[in-house]
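Hello,

Following up on my earlier ticket. Below are the two sequence lines again, exactly as submitted.
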Amino acid sequence: MKFAVIVFPGSNCDADCYHVVKEVIGQDADYVWHQDETFKTQYDCIVLPGGFSYGDYLRTGSIAKFSPIMNEVIKFANQGGLVLGICNGFQILTEAGLLPGALVRNKGLKFVCKDTFLKVENNETPFTLDYTQDQVIQVPVAHGEGAYVCDENTLEKLKANKQIVFRYSTSAGETFPECNFNGSSDNIAGIINKKGNVLGMMPHPERCAETILGNDLGKHVFTSIVSWLKGGGRNGE
Amino acid sequence: MYKALVYVTLKPSILDPQGTAVKKGLESLGFSDVMDVRVGKYLEVSLEAEDKQDAREQVEEMCKKLLSNPVIEDYRFELMEG
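Thanks for your patience. The regenerated structure is below:
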């Protein structure tokens, strides 16, 4: 399987994602510069990594969405290709209209960098099928603008279509308001599009993909993609 | 040449923790009558346009495509000549 890791000016988790794909799960990966206008080869999955693309100027992800390569990413996503956006990547996906809603300033105004517990709300996606339903995983977050917001109507649709994939929870999987450190709607940590091929999440699975880092449960976001592709799935089926 | 003064504000339904923090700051300074504070953005855009209508249309387009995010923000602007 071949992954593309898009590099924007200000991306800072690109090397981590590349490392996990290449060294931890043993797949091919290329860095793709944001100014590239086309993909030079066929990819199975595109990763938009975390960081501060364009210095977060104006709004997080707002300038990155106009990078030349984003036209290709949008085309790829619309054709059913798998796109994973982590942290700033999630912010870019909402700005680009590939995912509904938006990410705004954390309710406590602080940049929060810590381990969080996530409940896997839907393990029937290409990004979570190596997890069990309702599994609780520990994954670090590092963001200042990660409060997920959307209107009531959108939230109802997200729930009805099982598009909420990860929620902040306790270690036992209880999604109490206290776990919702950043003020997201409904403890949302990650969502998928209706078609099921574009996932955005604020926590960083690439930072907990090896036991040397104390926890390797994040790895399964990446192994799930490979399992799903090997299963021959397409278009979120 | 035209100059647009663009105001981008959070929609009323979006919580503004920054505004709340500023309100608390004002209160601790003794401004106890402050009811609410909302923090937004102000942008000055200078542009060439054929006439005011053209300038208005261009700025409208800019606000929709980049300067604001319709999911969380509203915008308004004033247009000046020169």
